[in-house]
Specification:
The structure is a homodimer.
Chain A lengths: L4 H5 L9 H16 L6 H8 L3 H7 L3 H23 L6 H16 L8 H9 L5 H20 L5 H22 L1 H17 L1
Chain A binds a DNA duplex (30 and 30 nucleotides) through helix 4.
DNA sequence: CTTGAGCAAGACAGATCTGTCTGTCAACAT
DNA sequence: ATGTTGACAGACAGATCTGTCTTGCTCAAG
């Protein structure tokens, strides 16, 4: 069971799923595609084919649904990254293959940037803590990989790689994957070289 | 007359200004601080101390006000960058001093990331064209500076610097200036060194 | 003094958003 | 057979949002 890019922001729920799953999958897709504030409850209700009371039975409020979507996103994104770099024999190869994995994401037809960066950009100080927690978790993972790879000054390298990854995500969002990939590969190679 | 950081997202309008200016300055501040969708017309009306009809006399719609704020932001941000790097004797020094200028911005009490990245993150495909135009203009300016500095492969360096700048802005937004500045300086030095 | 422009204050309409409530139906267990 | 549970459908309330309209005030030019 591998995590595909479609799972990251795919075509939406299947009709045979139960009400809660359909709501969650529909919201997951619409929140990412159109934004949190721009997506109303009524739209999620209509597109998931669910009664309003069924929605409020499973989620006490819209904010609870947002939190559930972000938690699902966090889990799926981490799983997708893990699967994409499963073949790397060691930490060094894992880091070197990271741009390839990101490129597959950037070229996905539903790519619209990092859901957590977008959430934080939209909500500002009111953003759910999951937003910063996600990027902090990724930074911690990068630092651990740099340490495992035996790089010199691993925490310095990790912060540089983290900045490059986030920059590439935003660059792919604003200017497209073709604009983001060459500098991403070049900078990654430089940071990993020494 | 220099452009200060306060002008980028400062304390707001002065009461002696005319109605249009007060609306524009209030919206400029609230849109950046709270987001476009989260800021309603009524709030702008109330905080700028202006009648609703006075608002709609100067701006035909909320979208027109958003566009005017983005255009003002574009102009002020470019002016601020120009002023901050005015002392650089040549293009090479200009590029080397860019992280210092950015740090001043990141540590401003009203810093909340790039208004155009945030706008694009919030509105997605419906974002006004000014959003991508701003980052494209900055990329073009970086490339020209790289060319003027006599760097080898200036277009490659410029795209790398652009990715680093955008990454630093997002990193400062998500994790603070202290997390963004060391990798920003390190990567800048590496790209400019050769 | 009159007249007209600009502005403040606020009512109003229509749409939309969140959240609650009622009613109906099908599946299922006792 | 009967009660329970989950779900669909949709009305409804209250708030909020955009945009229009009316009224009255001030000030300056003619």
């Amino acid at each position: 069971m591998t995590t595909t890019l479609d799972d990251l922001a795919g075509p939406g729920p299947q009709p045979e799923q139960d009400a809660r799953t359909r709501v969650l999958e529909t919201a997951y897709r619409l929140f990412y595609r159109d934004g949190l504030r721009a997506t109303g409850i009524d739209r999620i209700i209509a597109e998931s084919g669910v009664a309003k009371m069924s929605f409020y039975r499973h989620f006490p409020s819209k904010q609870a649904l947002v939190d559930a979507c972000l938690a699902l996103r966090h889990e799926r994104w981490n799983g997708w990254l893990e699967d994409s770099l499963r073949d790397a024999p060691d930490a060094r190869a894992w880091l070197a293959a990271l741009p390839d994995a990101l490129e597959g994401w950037f070229r996905s037809p539903w790519f619209r940037g990092c859901a957590f960066i977008n959430c934080h950009a939209e909500a500002g100080a009111d953003a759910p803590p999951m937003a910063v927690a996600h990027v902090r978790a990724l930074a911690a993972r990068l630092e651990q990989r740099c340490r495992d790879a035996g790089l010199t000054r691993p925490e310095v390298r990790a912060t540089e790689l983290m900045l490059v990854v986030e920059g590439a995500i935003v660059r792919a969002q604003m200017a497209g994957a073709d604009a983001a990939m060459p500098p991403l590969r070049g900078l990654f190679a430089r940071v990993l070289a020494d």
